[in-house]
Amino acid sequence: MELSVSDKDKSILLEKKNVLNPNVLDKYRLAGQITQTCLAYLTELINDSYHLGKHEPYSIAELCLLGDSHMKVALDNAYKNQVREKGIAQPVTIDVNDVVVGYSPEVDDETNFKFKAGDIVTINLGCHIDGYTSNLSHTLVIYPPGASVGPLLGSSADAICASYIASETVIALLALSLTPEKIPQSLADGSGLIRGSTIRQIVDSIAESFNCVVVPTSKVRRIRRFLAGQAEGIVAERDFKGVVWSEADQELRLLKKSPKYNGSQELATYDKTKSARVTASSAVPTDDFVVSPGEVYTVDIKMAPLQETEGPGLITLQAVDNVTGANHSKEAFRPRPSIFVRDVAISHQLKLKTSRKLLSTVDNKLSVYPFKLAHLTSGFPFDLSGDIEQQLRSIQQEIKPARLGLVELVNRHLVVAKPILRARFVPLQVILNASTSTGVNGYDAENPVLPGLELPLPRLGLTSLKLKSLLKASKEIPVARELSTVVLNGDNNELIRLSGGLSTSKPSWVHSKFQLSGAVAQSVNDLVQLTQDQRFGLKIKECQPMKSSN
Amino acid sequence: MSLTFNQPGNFTCNSCQIRLPTADVQRIHMKTEWHRYNLKRRVAGLGPIDSVVFQSKVALQQRQEAINSDQDEFGFHIHRRHRTGRRQPTKKDLKRRTRRDILANSSVDRRAQSPAASVVSRASEFSLGSIHSEAQSECTIDDLISEPTVSDYDYLSPASDSETSDSETDYTEEEQEEEPVVLTNCFYCSVQSTDEEANVAHMFTAHGLFIPEQDHLADLSGLLQYLGDKAIIDKECLKCRFVGKNLVSIRQHLQSKGHCVIPYETRAERQVIERFYDFDESDYTTVKVLPSGIELPDGRILGSRSFARYYRQNFPRRDREVGDGERTMSLVVKDREFHAPSYHRPVVEAQREKLSLRQLRKGNNLAHFRDPLN
């Protein structure tokens, strides 16, 4: 049953509560600070164990739980008895190399592993206070232990460079929307506005100069209270505002390169924004928007390098789980999905007592954000100064009965598992040779996407189901990711960077053989100068991590 | 009919050859049996008959029917099981009867065996049939004739059941003198009980007499006296104000109509028996009367039964308070239907499809059978 909300409440929830007053800004800032602190904590743990050898390295599952626990303790101390809902908005996921998003194994997961030297590791986390959300992702490099190490070279380095530069550039662009008079000559289009298309164009150019591809599901989007994209694909969000990269953009780029279709309008004119259904208030993302002050954005850029691939191809995502391909696939990496999000639109009378209990816990204790089973155990958050091994074991025991109940919740679609996605490179040759017997109507209900993006390759008429079947001939590819949340505070004309930035997300030491070239080099240079100019440049403030108490 | 002759009007009845003052009277006349009889006579080519003649014919017919009740209209014998007639007693019956006699001798006191009681019981048994038949004939006559002719009928009718009513009045007169109001005797069937409570219990189980508000009843004997006086002495039914001619008739009425009740619905009815009760003022609860119902002191609202369909709606209950997050999400959720992007097929392909459809249609209409496998 859907909740009915009155018009008055609607305007309060969607408009008034999203106005950036000092109170709201404080909540945003505190959420940002908690995410920054958690990232600093995790970075320190990884550095101490893997690089400095101070203690035995933690596995990924343990790191995830430690991060969640750290975040939860900080959140419990924030706004005590003042806000009704606060908590983890994104459980810590640690995605290694080709895993793009969602890998946060429970402590009893069989795929749980430790890092190797040369891995690029993306830490992704988020929290919210009263719905004001701060998300964060940062890609680290695992170096071999010892002091005498050089920079990371190769394709992963390209991706890290590209994603870092792209995300910093986009943040500078967003800051420019507050002071349009400072838009440099290289970016000016005469309108004095920062549009979605501007953002897309500059990110695509940066990716191209580093021989990278913007991975599908990358996005620069406006977020609102309780609407930080945590249920993307599960619910279609009205008034979606943001740039979203998908396979269709790569397809267009490839087709434009082809001499046959160059200039031919027939296939290249497919534009989802021209559809009659797409309006300013629809859920289908278009680039036709203007960044305006008073909004909050997440800049989520994922880059995949094309250095080690042969010939033209497409980067797409593969959802992995513990069931699919168990009989035929040689792939050993089959993690269980561990992050779930409640689908609030669905209600169902459950049969099992454990599942009813679990659902009521989810409904009462957690909000609309994703959660892990470990968050619902009694030992969570655990005492970081106590015996961590012991506490991990007790959590492992407690998860088992809860997992029984979870199965029913998932089967009834009351909660939906967030997919674990891996990046795959599919050669264009394979795609062109594929026949689409289902036509364009095949729809992969297992992996819902944003509305309007159901058909991954609209010009070639290839459905997501068909693309899934082509993944057999694909190749894995590493992905670097930078995500930060920024608040465009129109009152002070300053951009508050809630997460990321130099204080916590300093890029690892890498060396790419590519560099910015062409027109985009000029624009990026201008933007960097503006951000570094204290007096006449852009005002960007970063949230600093809290001083550690222990 | 006298009305008809005194004020001859413009409305006529051709078959009865009378004139009627108003259209309403004419309409009523058209529905009478007399008119129908005359109509049939007219069809048969006979002249109309007078109302008085018709009544005498009806009476004659009824008497004839009573005599020839064993024969149908064609004179054939109608076989009926004689309910009243005794069949030959079997051994079983004899045994049962002797046992009953022994029991009666041992338990019932002499008063119950008095000849009066037995006479009463026989009289009531006998009168059952006669009263019934009287009621029936009354019914038919009411239907038959219009109001003014009732007197005519009264003059004519009693001949049929004069015998029975004679005997009946004899018995009731005899009984009327002897039946006093005894509080331990049932007012409706004279069954004797040991005390008043037992009598009340008997009247409740056997006749359905329910005494309302028994918790507040202060004077049971007074109430019983009042009921007995009404039933036995006044011979009046409390429920419908029917007054019986004699005790038998009022008892007959009370039992057959199920009127062995104390009316307790309207304020006036309650006031009649209020003097036997003692309502303590402190027991009352003060309620508030709302347009939607009655609000009790504890806050609950008694609703009217007429709104039951609205009260009985079964909404799923939300036990928990819903947070802002869930409400926000439910606000922005769009319908989750899959919107396939508009994909235009080239025109050539559409034409080819049409062609092949036509060919298919043709393929169904082959002139000669051809095995597709060979």
TrEMBL record, chain A:
The record's listing under InterPro entries reads: Creatinase/aminopeptidase-like (IPR036005), PA2G4/ARX1 (IPR047113), Pept_M24 (IPR000994), WH-like_DNA-bd_sf (IPR036388)
Q: What does this protein do?
A: Probable metalloprotease involved in proper assembly of pre-ribosomal particles during the biogenesis of the 60S ribosomal subunit. Accompanies the pre-60S particles to the cytoplasm.
Q: Which key words tag this protein in UniProt?
A: Cytoplasm, Hydrolase, Metal-binding, Metalloprotease, Nucleus, Protease
Query: According to its UniProt record, where is this protein located?
Result: Cytoplasm; Nucleus
Please tell me whether the keyword Metal-binding is annotated for this protein: yes
Q: Where is the Peptidase M24 domain?
A: 27-145
Report the GO terms under cellular component: cytoplasm; nucleolus; nucleoplasm; preribosome, large subunit precursor
Protein name listed in UniProt: Probable metalloprotease ARX1
Q: What SUPFAM superfamilies has UniProt attached to this entry?
A: Creatinase/aminopeptidase (SSF55920)
Write out the similarity annotation.
Belongs to the peptidase M24 family.
Q: Which organism is it from?
A: Ogataea parapolymorpha (strain ATCC 26012 / BCRC 20466 / JCM 22074 / NRRL Y-7560 / DL-1)
Might you name a Gene Ontology BP term for this protein? ribosomal large subunit export from nucleus
tRNA processing keyword on record = no
From TrEMBL, chain B:
Residue spans with biased composition (Basic residues)? 80-99
What the entry lists under InterPro entries is as follows: ZN622/Rei1/Reh1_Znf-C2H2 (IPR041661), Znf622/Rei1/Reh1 (IPR040025), Znf_C2H2_sf (IPR036236)
Which stretches does the entry tag as region Disordered?
80-116, 151-177
Q: Which domain of life is it from?
A: Eukaryota
- Residue ranges of domain ZN622/Rei1/Reh1 zinc finger C2H2-type in the record: 186-284
Q: Where is the composition biased (Acidic residues)?
A: 163-177
What protein name does the entry list? Zinc finger protein
Task: Tell me what organism the protein belongs to.
Answer: Ogataea parapolymorpha (strain ATCC 26012 / BCRC 20466 / JCM 22074 / NRRL Y-7560 / DL-1) (Yeast)
